[in-house]
Write a structure and sequence with these properties.
Bound molecules: iron/sulfur cluster
Number of domains: 1
Strand content: 25-35%
Largest sheet: 7 strands, antiparallel
Shape: globular
Oligomer: single chain
Helix content: 10-25%
Structural class: mainly beta
Distance between the termini: 30 Å
Number of strands: 9
Low-confidence stretches: none
Mean pLDDT: 94
Length: about 160
């Protein structure tokens, strides 16, 4: 639980995911759990898939049917709370914001880390993307076994 441990439980994480059938294409998963005055995710979305409403403190809501997986909200979130997720056969594909050095490189294998900071699996680095829009945030595309869909959070170090 966030207030006790600083990270969400698996049940809380699941509430941020759509039905698994929706993950045939990349969908934004917004792990924003607490009310704060913030809204770049909402204002950056080109298709208005993310709603916060008039009270900027409210937690963002996403319409998964509208999301086109463009990644704008991933770059825009100052809290690195958003990632794109899809499922391909036995793999869960994550596009995560990453701001540490060294940056993972395509083809490398890194440790997959859960929300409590523990290593849980190997993560294959599929792509690393940096562009003008991203400033210093790199989007790293990784695949992990599908069983870690609700556990994987980021990558730790090169194996
Ligand atoms: S990925 Fe793109 S379309 Fe989907 S919610 Fe984020 S900004 Fe909107
Ligand atoms: S930009 Fe990030 S931190 Fe701010 S409201 Fe959206 S998801 Fe939450």
């Amino acid at each position: 639980m966030i207030k006790v441990n600083g990270y969400p439980t698996k049940e809380q994480v699941k509430t941020k995911f759509p039905k698994i059938e929706k993950l045939v294409k990349p969908i934004a998963i917004i792990e924003c759990y607490q009310e704060i005055p913030c809204n770049p995710c909402s204002t950056s979305c080109p298709v208005n898939a993310i709603t916060i409403g008039e009270d900027i403190n409210k937690i963002p809501k996403i319409d998964y049917d509208l999301c086109i997986g463009c990644g704008s909200c991933v770059y825009s979130c100052p809290g690195l709370c958003i990632m794109l997720v899809s499922i391909k056969e036995d793999l869960a594909i994550f596009q995560i914001p990453y701001e540490l050095l060294p940056v993972p490189l395509t083809g490398e294998i890194w440790s997959g880390i859960d929300r409590s900071g523990h290593q849980i699996c190997e993560a294959n680095i599929l792509k690393t993307l940096k562009n003008k829009q991203s400033d210093r945030t790199v989007i790293v595309t990784v695949s992990v076994p599908k069983e870690f869909l609700y556990d994987f959070s980021t990558v730790g170090c090169k194996l």
